[in-house]
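Incident review: delayed structure delivery

Summary: a single-chain prediction request sat in the queue longer than the usual turnaround. Root cause was a stuck worker, restarted by the on-call engineer. No data loss occurred. The affected request and its eventual output are reproduced below so the record is complete for anyone auditing the incident later.

Affected input:
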Amino acid sequence: MKQVSWLLALVVGFALGWVANGATSNRPAARPAPSAAAQPQRPARPTEDPRAVYRVTVDDSPAKGPADALVTIVESSDFECPFCKRVTPTLKQVEETYRGKVRFVFKHNPLPFHSRALPAAIATEEARAQGGDAKFWAMHDALFGAASLDEAAILQAAKEAGVDAAKVKDAMTSGRHKDRIERDQKLAQSVGANGTPSFFVNGRKLTGAQPFPAFQALIDEELRKAEELVRAGTPAGQLYAKIMERAASAPVFVPGTAPAAGEAAPQAPSAPPPSPYREVPLRADDPARGPADAKLTVVLFSDFQCPFCGRIEPSLAQLEQAFPGQVRVVWKHQPLPMHPNAVPAALAAEAAREQGKFWPMHAKLFSNQQALSPAVYTTYARELGLDSRRFEQAVSARRGETRIQEDQKLAGQVGANGTPTMFFNCRQVVGAQPFEQLRAIADEELKKADRLLSGQRPGPGFYDKACKANLAAAPAAVVPAAAVAPTQVGAIDLRPDDPVRGNPRAPVTIVLFSDFQCPFCARVGPTLDEVQRTYGDRVRIVWKHEPLPFHPNALPAAKAAEAAREQGKFWQMHDRLFASQRELSPDSYDRLAREIGLDLHRFQEASRSDKARSRIEEDQRLAARIGAQATPTMFVNGEKVEGAVPFAMLKAVIDRKLGR
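Output delivered after worker restart:
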């Protein structure tokens, strides 16, 4: 969910559901897990210590807030990153809530796959050179408020910030201030903050566009510690320097999970993180680019409306150019439910495939991603020289729908629930990785292919052979992810009146942190229904709110659910909200309240009350404390299960808790 750090990719992976993988459809069903004594010990996945304090110096970076503030928040950010933009209102809320107690410091980390991030960073530094920190922050706000970051938009932002636009243009052209930006990037990389946004709250790392309660929980904790230091005699103005004296200058891992001596940290581009391997079968007529006997086949599960899928396309093109004749790219459809234009675009691509022009249509769709609509597909077909009537008939008859659904089913089986997800000779790679990361992975897989070939030329069946070798060499990666190094938390605080489904005395409790607007949360619903049908009174499900900040309808929907809970109908409202997920709005909440027989006046009063919001924020603070930073996240008797996982994976965890 940027290079993406391994840890942030894991967190974004939650929202993407990339961990939602199980055995492939043509594998035998998994046998019951052997006893702990009989199982070979597998190395735990590297897990960063959430209590670690990192040495992130302020030096001469842009800052706002008192120099003697008890809490310093250093932000490592990218002006083109959508998550960085989304978190800005939260940071404003932090600033207002803790005015006088918090200082903000900015560090640049323009990611390599954001082409306009570096020019924007240079523009802010030029603004600072002209007018100090005040002009930096004015430019900062103008850029995050801009609709785009092309040169005209940046220069307009400069005018709005009251700086000399001509000098800004000259700085971008000459690369002035680039050394300073690269210094910030090296610092971020050294402490494992390769993704954006990343924050350091008195040195404590907080990754991603977190909601306000996540910041609040960490800031409050650090404020208490800072006040103790001041009472012990440390001047407030020297507090941050004092904290930095014993701070770590490299990622700190939970004992027993650190990379082996000499091994690069998981985020480093030169050492890609360990990846699961999945058997990914291909059709003979799948859209493919490159030689059929390529040493490396990249299977791409993608969505024409997904912005991250658009970003991966140039990196894949670079990869093909870097390894001419050695790479084949195979397309698989995975239109996500939150993208209304994704399925129609996929149907258009399939109609073009029938006439031998999938890739030209693919290029058209991604080039015009912001303008996707059924009205333009026939125009594209004519521009590409397709038989328009045949094309329109294929689209209107939805002839490609079965193929698209087959791809989606395969995606679920191999854990490609988010987009883009790629498989390099069956090795999973998730997200819009920059070219450097893809190249490092391709290098590894091509070297393996060369060893497998022993000087021979690859034949048409080499993909299957390479996948088989990868699967055989990585047995630990093909077992359900929940069975490998599970994360266990202690007792989770539950209220007596938390919404519960199932037997209150059930031996297994699943605490679910969820968001009514999150599409992956909707996907996990049928899985939990199957859990209850299978286990009956042995499992109960407890709901906790975690409305994410980039889902504008999630918090109002959570308030509606809380108002329904007060009248004893939380689960009825819960079911209606997920069934109407694409139509969430204040009007729909009143309609749903009437449909399930609520007292409408009482419902409206409760949904507007501070009590509802307070309960929701309490759940969010709990989520932040125990590491439920994305949705859905479940805790099965305290064992963390992330993402819209398939029933088989959840069943394995439940069976383990039941002692089966």
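Verification: Residues 63-245 form a domain with the Glutaredoxin fold (CATH 3.40.30.10).
Action items: add queue-age alerting; document worker restart procedure.
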